[in-house]
Prior knowledge:
Blueprint (H helix, E strand, L loop, with lengths): L20 E11 L9 E9 L5 E9 L10 E7 L2 H5 L7 H14 L6 E6 L9 H9 L13 H10 L3 E5 L3 H9 L3 E10 L5 H11 L16 E6 L13
Parallel strand pairs: 4-5, 4-6, 6-7
Antiparallel strand pairs: 1-2, 2-3, 3-5, 7-8
The protein binds zinc ion.
Zinc ion (ZN) binds next to loops.
Amino acid sequence: MNKLTTEASPALNGVPPQTGLKVVDKVFDRPLNNPLFPNLRMGGYTTRKGQRGVKVDHGIIHRGDIWNAGDQPVLLRIDSGCLTSAVFHDESCDCHWQLMQAMKLINDAPEGTLGLIIEHFHHEGKAHGFTAKLKSYRDGMYPVPGDKRQFGSSLLILKDLGIKRVRVMTNNPEKLAVLVDNGIEVVEVIHLVTNDPKLRWFLNYKAQTFGHQIVFGDEPQSTGEAALLQASSYPPEPAGSDSRE
Ligand SMILES: [Zn+2]
């Protein structure tokens, strides 16, 4: 069983009747004024669960008319917010590196590529929150145990955009399962693994604890700039029956 369940089940087409999760606001195609990524645009979604639920914001980075993808696969990353890494540039985890790598891959892809990053700010500390994450760091620099993230909002955004086929950038088999189990065709998996030696212990931790698909290259990179990108077809090699715990 997948520990990380979707907020909406059982099928993407069933979003959102079972949960009441719906899109209440959205914006696309705003300039991203970052000279490193001239091909990227940005936008945002606001979702709400039920009539009186709390509104939740999600950021998106995109390239091309992703709302007109049709059958064209979209280069996709579902990214969990990480204030410590992405904003403060704390180097305890690989989140900032992965986000930058995903942006670079989409930006540098051939003309006509469609790309999308969905940024879930509320996934901080695997959705336990910022304070809980920092407390876990205090207790020995280990990530907060367990994973409370849900991906119903990701599915809702994909459905709203009409995206049916993806080339997904992830090492996390749970994210693959969420997509595939909900009717999104994964035509390619692109692993994002930094060779930065400072992060090797953390990547090993994720592999052992969450079953992440981690394949290190032969030459460690001190800066984290050089990516080891390994594309493979879904499904990945089995990582052990209980590795998703
Ligand atoms: Zn992080």
